[in-house]
Design brief:
The complex is a heterodimer. Chain A is α/β, with parallel strands linked by helices. Chain A contains nine helices and five strands; from the N terminus they run E-H-E-H-H-E-H-H-E-H-H-E-H-H. Chain A has a single domain, classed as 3-Layer(aba) Sandwich (Rossmann fold). Chain A is about 50% helix and about 10% strand. The longest helix of chain A has 25 residues. Chain B is of the alpha/beta class. Chain B is about 45% helix and about 10% strand. In chain B, strands 2-3-1-4-5 form a five-stranded parallel sheet, sandwiched between helices. Chain B is globular, with a radius of gyration of 18 Å. The chains are: A alpha/beta, B alpha/beta. At the A-B interface, helix 2, helix 3 and helix 5 of A face helix 2, helix 3 and helix 5 of B.
């Protein structure tokens, strides 16, 4: 077989360290909870669409195949670090096959909210063997751009407790019995995840962004980083004047 | 590294210094008689005073329903499938197999990692990747591979009014336009993988073309040698059951 293989390879070479060679582009965001990565990715998506690009979006833990299992496991607290890691790899494999490769092959921009690096950081923080986790994700396509939104733990805690929703059980690492208090547990667990992320960022050459800055500042930097990798990519309606919608998208984040 | 596992083992799971029980695996294709022989072994061992538990693929509380649903959909990518089955085994190791072994049970496993490695490998996945994936799996005390020629397997399945199963025929990988040829090709490939792994994983190949009594007698001899050679006295012979 010539060209990139869609799944784990017989040769034992590591896909995640090799360029995919498909016509599309894969952009992923990483970071701990409260780093602002999802907000930034959603703004980027709006912007890219307004610029006339064909964009598809996929997020961590969303495959219909494992949904039932994940829900059951979380509800009944059935997960161990190993099965939690495996079920997320299963989820990823299914999305890689259905939601990541086809749009890349068709020449779209694929935006992924979390990628294999999340597993490298989180599962390692849960005590899983690093080499084992990396082997599991060998089949993953290397992104064209991986952005790591780095925030310190205080900023993340402030954002999470200050607004939106209550802490999720596994994101707070409550399964590890670190502390009966969710906030304390989150702090201890996510500090570990942060340390792992820093190693991962270096090992895989992720681009680090300062997630503590304002939303607008981050979005401007993100667009600047994205621009060069879009060269040569087809736009669905490049001929249409897009200044208006682009201004709209900019206005929304300002 | 804990040599009781194929690799790094299970994170955060205290296996203790000793697992007094014995994990015994019976492998082989559907229709080869695995469940019959496991049932017979279980009855025999319990009659001898052993505590016995049995387990098998896709029986975990966590993944059973999910895997069944995915198989119904027929849109089950090979990597996804391998990882889902690995999740199933990890869950059973943590919640059934290791707790039973800790309590001194004989655990009879109806298939183990070898079937899922063979399935993935036949579908083009890297064998090393599969082997490393199962680094969390406990090394069994003994593995018996019930080996049967695919032609004989087909005749056995069909003469009992059975059908050639979609997945056991590898219909998802397009080996042949018809079910019979697909089944035969697929089972031949699977058999090739099992033969290849026999040395690597050190399992005992049992000729399953013989009668149930003959095969069961051989299994009992092997199991007795492992657990307690005095089980082999004439009084416990198969014929006296």
């Amino acid at each position: 077989m010539n060209g990139p293989h869609p799944t784990a390879r017989r040769e034992g070479s590591i896909d995640i360290q090799q360029a995919h060679g498909y016509p599309g582009r894969l952009i992923v965001v990483e970071g701990i909870d409260g780093s602002g990565k999802s907000t930034q990715l959603s703004l980027l998506q709006t912007y890219l669409v307004s610029e006339g690009y064909d964009v598809s979006f996929t997020e961590w833990n969303s495959s219909p195949i494992v949904k039932d299992t994940t829900r059951r496991g979380k509800k009944k607290n059935l997960f161990s670090p190993t099965t939690f890691s495996l079920i997320h790899a299963t989820d990823f494999a299914d999305r890689h096959e259905r939601s990541i490769l086809p749009p890349l092959q068709a020449g779209l921009i694929v935006l992924a909210d979390r990628y294999a690096y999340t597993a490298f950081a989180r599962d390692a923080a849960r005590g899983c063997d690093q080499a084992w986790i990396r082997n599991m994700y060998d089949f993953a396509t290397r992104p064209d751009l991986s952005l790591y939104f780095r925030v310190d733990i205080d900023t993340a805690v402030a954002r999470i407790t200050g607004g939106r929703i209550s802490l999720k059980f596994h994101e707070a690492g409550m399964d590890l019995g670190l502390s009966p208090d969710p906030i304390t547990s989150f702090r201890i667990f996510q500090t570990r995840v942060l340390e792992e992320y820093d190693h991962v960022a270096e090992e895989f050459g992720l681009t680090v962004l300062d997630g503590a800055r304002s939303v607008v500042e981050q979005q401007r930097e993100m667009r600047k980083l994205v621009k060069p990798i879009l060269k040569g990519l087809r736009r669905a309606h490049a001929e249409r004047p897009s200044a208006g919608s682009a201004r709209l998208a900019t206005a929304r984040i300002a | 590294m804990d040599t009781r596992f194929y690799g790094a083992g299970l994170a955060k799971l205290d296996v203790g210094t000793e697992l007094p029980g014995n994990l015994i695996v019976v492998e082989g294709a559907d229709g080869v008689g695995r469940s019959t022989h496991i049932e017979l072994l279980q009855g025999w061992l319990e009659g001898q005073g052993f505590a016995v538990a049995s387990t098998g693929l896709v029986r975990s509380a966590l993944t059973r329903r999910g895997i069944e649903l995915a198989k119904e959909g027929h849109s089950f990518d090979r990597t996804t499938m391998s990882l889902f089955y690995a999740t199933d085994l990890a869950d059973r190791l943590e919640h059934e197999i290791i707790p039973a072994l800790r309590s001194g049970f004989v655990v009879l496993a109806d298939r183990y990692i070898y079937t899922t490695i063979a399935r993935g490998s036949v579908r083009g996945l890297d064998r090393e990747w599969l082997a490393r994936l199962y680094g969390f799996a406990l090394v069994p005390r003994r593995v018996f591979f019930l080996r049967l020629d695919p032609d004989e397997l087909i005749r056995r399945t069909l003469r009992r009014g059975g059908e050639l199963d979609y997945w056991e025929s590898g219909r998802d990988i397009g080996l042949a336009p018809d079910l019979y040829t697909s089944f035969r090709k697929y089972q031949t490939l699977i058999l090739g993988e099992f033969d290849r792994m026999a040395e690597q994983y050190g399992y005992t190949t049992i000729d399953a073309s013989r009668t149930v009594e003959e095969v069961q007698a051989e299994l009992r001899r092997e199991v007795a040698n492992l657990l307690d050679p005095s089980l082999l006295t004439p009084a416990t012979d198969v014929a006296d059951d």
